[in-house]
Structure formats: C-alpha cells, structure tokens
Amino acid sequence: MSKEIAKRSKIEIAKAPDGLEGPGFFATKLSDVIGLARANSLWPLPFATSCCGIEFMATVASNYDLARFGMERLSFSPRQADLLMVMGTIAKKMGPTLRQVYEQMAEPRWVLSVGACASSGGIFDTYSVLQGIDRIIPVDVYVPGCPPRPEQYIEGIMKIQELAKNETIRRRDSPEYKRLLNSYGIE
Ligand code: SF4
User: Which pTM value belongs to this model?
Assistant: First the structure.
C-alpha cells in the first residue's frame, strides 16, 4: 500500500525496530524482525463456548476489524494457530479437550483468557465448572469483564502483541519456560 493511501485512510504502518539506517540499507537485530513479524501476523484459534464468544464475533466484524492486526485469518486447526483465545464458561468435562488443543499448537504459542468465566469460573462457582483455565494450561494475558467490550478484547490482543514482539528467540528453549510447562504436566 502506498504511503499516500495509508495517509488518507489513517492506516498506520507498523513501526520498524531500532537499527542502523543509511542510504540503501537498514540493519537491525534478527530477533526484533522476527518479533515484529510474529506480533503482526498472529493466527488466533477462537475456543468459544458461550456468551463471550458472541462478543468476539463483534470484535472480528467490520466495526472493530481485527484484520487491522493481521488477525483476520481465524484458525480452527491448532496446528496452524499461535494464539489460543479462550472465551466462555469451561466445564470440567471440556478441560481435557482444551488442554489437547493447547498441546497440539506449535511453539511459539500464546494464550489469552477472555472474560470472568475463562479466567476464574465467573459466576459459576459450582462443581461442574473449571475455576479458571490456568488450572490446566498456562495463560499469558487475562481480559476482565462479563462479557468484555470489544475494546477490552483488543487491549488484550495488543498486550499479546507486545509479548510476541519482545520475546527472545530462545525463550521457548529456556529452563524457566520448560519448568512452567512441567508445572502443568506438559512435556
Ligand atoms: S464471562 Fe459472562 S459473558 Fe463471558 S461467558 Fe461468562 S457469563 Fe458469559
């Protein structure tokens, strides 16, 4: 897209990472370029079980337009997704399925827990509902609300983008990350 069109439609082009610039060249760190690419091409897997999922539909639709974030390609296959968005009440019976979906996702993967139900069980303090998905999988960002407004979804997504942008290439091989997964019994 030309800069003129971008200016007229008020679309901002992603900011380039810091680096050395001169006539005909630009040099920067490989990890910064990878972070920039990852942050602006997240492929979300919407794991929506109830009302929070309906609000997600509004977030994806034209008014809020998730395509601005390079996220219009929703993935219903875990192997082609890197952002798991859990939205809605998760019954304990659903827990193993959610965990299997997480385990099938390739690294690097991020998890966004959207709404009170996914984050803490919400109003369903009962025997059949999981009191927060972080009991079975690690969560990167929590979005509060019942349901959250689309603006809150977007804020959560932008926080995931920050994580993706600033993550070191080797984080997923680090002992700390392996310890985190092991604490959930995930190899
Ligand atoms: S947090 Fe509220 S809106 Fe979201 S799934 Fe639970 S009850 Fe529904």
Answer: 0.90
